[in-house]
Amino acid sequence: MAAQPLPLFTAESDLLAWERRLRRQGFRRVAGVDEVGRGPLAGPVVAACVVLPPGLDRVPFDDSKKLSPGRRQELADELRRMGAAVGVGVVDHAVIDEINILQASLLAMRRAVEALDPPPDFLLVDGRHQVPLAIAQEALVKGDGRVAAIAAASIVAKVTRDRMMEEFHQTYPAYNFHRNKGYPTREHRQALRRHGPCPIHRRSFKGVCDAARPQPDDRLPW
C-alpha cells in the first residue's frame, strides 16, 4: 500500500504566522523549543530546539501528541532532509531527583538551544516558562499546536525520548518501557509494586517512593 501524503498547512495558518512575523521584524534564526517526559516515573526529560529553513510555504508538522509513532519518525527524518537545524538536550533521572522536574525541563531546553551553532536569535517556547538564556523569546501555552517550529521540536523530542526508553527496555524488561515509555500506566505501576524501582526510576516521584518501601514481593536486585 502506498504511503499516505503528509498533511500540509499553508503559510497563512497559525503554524507559520509566528515565524514569518518575527522574520519581518529582523530575526533570522527563529527557533521552536519543546520538551517531553515531565510526567513519567522513569527515564530522562528530553527537549529539542528546531530552526526551520527560511522561505517555507508549507510545513507537514503538527503537535507530536496527535501523530502516530510512525508518522513522528517520518517527520523527524523529513526535518533533516529539508535542512532544519536541530538541537537536543537530555536531563537524566538523577538530576530530575536533585533539582525537580520543572528545573530539569528548563535545563533540558537550555541544553537543546545551546546545541545549535550558530545559535538562534529568537525562541518560541512551548508552555508558560521561558528558557533560562539571554535570548529574546516568547512562551506560548499549547505552542506545539500553534507554531510550526515548536511542533517540529515536539516531534524530535518525542522520537528521541521514545527511542531511549525502548533501549532501556532491553536492560530493564520487567517494566515494559518499550510500551509505556516510563509513564504511570496500570501495567507500569503493577510492575513497580512487584519488583520495586530500577536504577532509572525517579525516586522523588510519589509513585516510585511508595514502591521503594520494602515489601515481600518478587523484587529485583537493582
Describe this protein with a few key phrases.
single chain; 222 residues; alpha/beta; Nucleotidyltransferase, domain 5; 5-stranded mixed sheet; two-stranded antiparallel ribbon; 7 strands
Give a written overview of the molecule.
The model is unreliable at 1-12 (pLDDT under 50). 43% of the residues are buried. This protein has helices at 14-24, 69-81, 93-99, 101-114, 148-171, 177-180, 186-195, 206-211, and strands spanning 9-10, 30-36, 45-51, 58-59, 85-91, 122-126, 137-140. With 222 residues, it is of the alpha/beta class. A hairpin with an 8-residue loop joins strand 2 and strand 3. Strands 5-3-2-6-7 form a five-stranded mixed sheet. Strands 1-4 form a two-stranded antiparallel sheet.
